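Researcher: Can you fold this with S-adenosyl-L-homocysteine in place?
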Amino acid sequence: MSTRIGSVTLVGGGPGDPDLLTVAGVRALSEADIVLYDRLAPHETLAAMAPRAELVDVGKRPGHHPIPQEEIQRMMVAAALDGANVVRLKGGDPFVFGRGGEEVEACRSAGIPVVVVPGVTSAISVPAAAGIPVTHRNTSRMFTVVSGHAPLSPAELEHLAGLGGTIVILMGITNLPSITAGLLRFGMAPAMPVAVIEQGYSARQRTTFGELTTILTESVQARVASPAVVIIGEVVSLARGGDTDASAVLVDAAAVAGS
Ligand code: SAH
């Protein structure tokens, strides 16, 4: 039995492209003894990024829970108590609808040192992959990130409709009908632009455009499916039109940064 206690590093893996991992995240992976990774975390290149580590897929699919959250936490704590450097690799940022807070608490109550490496959240980066900025001078000076996992209350819908800024919804495909109906009921403009971006930063990235009154029909026709980010607001009309290849966006960004 090991006498040295290990540690846990919660790493925000970004929206899926390994290029969008942070330098701290890459370093943590390279030093890991075990990596517990999620479905939406960048996992295709994990074997190269974490060469010493045992790789454990704890991914959850909507409606299916192969490994319950409590069990993931138990595995994480057990490995660290056994002396391992554990990396818990999560999609996007660990603290944006990622249950990262619960995992930090589980480590603290077991007396395990825990570090959180923030990640690039899909809430901002996936719209960007489709060419949509969440804020834009004179167009939107705020953005609100909402979980659509459970239905929104009338009070929440009323406040959202009244904000006058960009609304970004994660896990929002199932409840899209009630969300759009609610925003219309509370006075949002029927012609408000909406985009649904599926599988951001993958070869299968696809954007479906519409308006508040048409996006449902468009989404059904296009058979949109999770994972997808829904973005509602005038900023959607700033997309350069059609779908933009995510890797091209990264190349564009690099060119701008270098110029
Ligand atoms: N912590 C994550 C979000 C976890 S909730 C973050 O900060 O990004 C999971 C939801 O995130 C998905 O249902 C989807 O709405 C969104 N999402 C994450 N990655 C995505 C991707 N590559 N493309 C589209 N949506 C994504």
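Model: Folded with S-adenosyl-L-homocysteine in place. The chain has nine helices and ten strands.
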